[in-house]
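Technical note accompanying the year-one report. For the benefit of new consortium partners, we illustrate the data format agreed upon in the data management plan: each record pairs a sequence with a structure-token string. No post-processing was applied to the example shown here.
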Amino acid sequence: MRAGVGYDVHPLKRHRRLVLGGVEIPHGYGLDGHSDADVVVHAIIDALLGAAGLGDIGMHFPPSDPQYKDISSITLLRRVGDLLQEHGWQVSNVDATIVAEQPHLSSYVPRMRQTIGDGLGIDREQVSVKSTTSKGLGFLGQRKGIAAHAVALLRHAEAGEGLRDPGSSPVQ
């Protein structure tokens, strides 16, 4: 099994859609970025790629590439899921925490879990999404941006049911 950690942050911008965890949330501001700027999915992607040793989101989907302009981050998540499968990895679970003063997100969390799970082809029970505030501290507390942290746990298909790395000998 392998674990990975991801983090993303984007500034808020007026007159832009706010998409978090693949769910559009009504709000006067959205996140500024090349794609839909979904910090939750971006953090999960980095956690997944990190766990698999496959680089990071910028390496696979560079913001300088026009084909990713305004692309749905769920589309990118599906591509990462396919890449993981090609390398023999299965997602055990993902866990994300959103840091935002506003809007209040708890009512959107079930849809986020479902959308992320569907994007990865896993059950929503394997996806955890939580939200918190920064208690008014820093740029997040001043409502200038939204951030997300994520952790992902992968298992290699060749490792079987045990907790050993692929290619290692079983414990005797």
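Partners are asked to follow this layout when depositing records. The chain has one domain: 2-158.
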